[in-house]
Specification:
The protein is built from ten helices and 13 strands. The protein is α/β, with parallel strands linked by helices. The chain binds 1-O-phosphono-alpha-D-glucopyranose (G1P).
Length: 279
């Protein structure tokens, strides 16, 4: 049994919902007060014990690489001063992780982005996947930790799901299956972005996955799906047909920070939670 230590962060997408900001800045660098979205996703993985971080990046995303690198001039500037505390969190992440980057040259979907990570993950390691625009907050175990508990129990791929109201269903991967424990479903089928009448349930996949390494061979062999993209949902469906996918109805809050409404809600939530926040 392989210990989970690796996590993929697909960050290559264009972020068209946030144009024109995303013309020159990655959407993953949108600030939630003073930390970018990607920082929260990485924190979640690190808290869950995943400290080998692999970013699937692309052109125009260099701000992410720089964020997770040293900045000698700035560090020297604030050294010994009160402002140095603002760099502590990111410094802790850098000190406790190993970070690598690979570029996705053509934006061909989430499945293709994950396949680009094969070279960093290797052939026989299970790994986490975090989509940073799904920003999640929990009082107890974070979403990735909840998925890891299920992975340790069932030894197969695990996806986080939540109940959706109908208008959101056509934007998500939707799963169905048998409830085998409280909040735990053995997935039998899944569909990417179905129309309402074709959706097998109202349970949508949110951007947290644990994938077993056979997913790479499946991704290499599937053809393009919805939107002419290689869809991770289509590869997972093949695992699901063999009973090898568990869905976790996760506990916690999720903000879709690709939408302006949820993005602002996430900022307000963080501001209120840390109302002592001061610069
Ligand atoms: C991707 C996945 C989809 C999932 C969603 C979660 O879609 O393809 O199955 O439900 O992330 O955020 P995207 O948001 O990239 O269209």
């Amino acid at each position: 049994m392989h210990t989970l230590t690796k996590c993929l962060f697909p960050v290559a997408g264009y972020g068209t919902r946030f144009l024109p900001f995303t013309k020159s800045m990655p959407k993953e660098m949108l600030p939630i007060i003073n930390k970018p979205l990607i920082h929260y996703g990485v924190e979640e993985a690190v808290v869950a014990g995943l400290n080998e971080l692999c970013f699937i990046t692309s052109r125009n995303k260099r701000a992410i690489d720089d964020y997770f690198d040293v900045h000698y001039e700035l560090e020297q500037q604030v050294a010994g001063r009160d402002q140095a505390r603002h760099l502590q969190d990111i410094q802790d992440i850098m000190d406790n992780t190993c970070i690598s980057f690979v570029r996705q040259r053509h934006i061909l979907g989430l499945g293709n982005a994950i396949l680009c990570g094969k070279t960093l993950i290797g052939d026989n390691c299970p790994f986490g996947v975090v989509l940073a625009d799904d920003l999640c907050f929990n009082e107890g175990k974070n979403v990735m930790q909840q998925l890891m508990d299920l992975y340790n129990q069932y030894q197969c791929s695990v996806v986080a799901v939540q109940e959706l109201s109908p208008e959101y269903i056509p934007n998500f991967g939707i799963v169905t299956g048998e409830t085998i424990a409280d909040g735990t479903i053995r997935v039998s089928d899944m569909v990417e972005k179905p129309s309402l009448d074709q959706a097998p349930s109202n349970l949508g996949i949110v951007g947290r996955y644990i994938l077993t390494p056979d997913i790479f061979t499946l991704l290499e062999n599937i053809s393009s799906g919805v939107n002419n993209e290689i869809q991770i949902t289509d590869a997972l469906r093949q695992q699901a047909m063999h009973g090898q996918v568990i869905a976790c109805v996760f506990k916690g809050l999720r903000f879709d920070c690709g939408s302006t409404k949820d993005y602002i809600a996430a900022i307000n939530y963080c501001y209120q939670k840390h109302s002592g926040h001061q610069n």
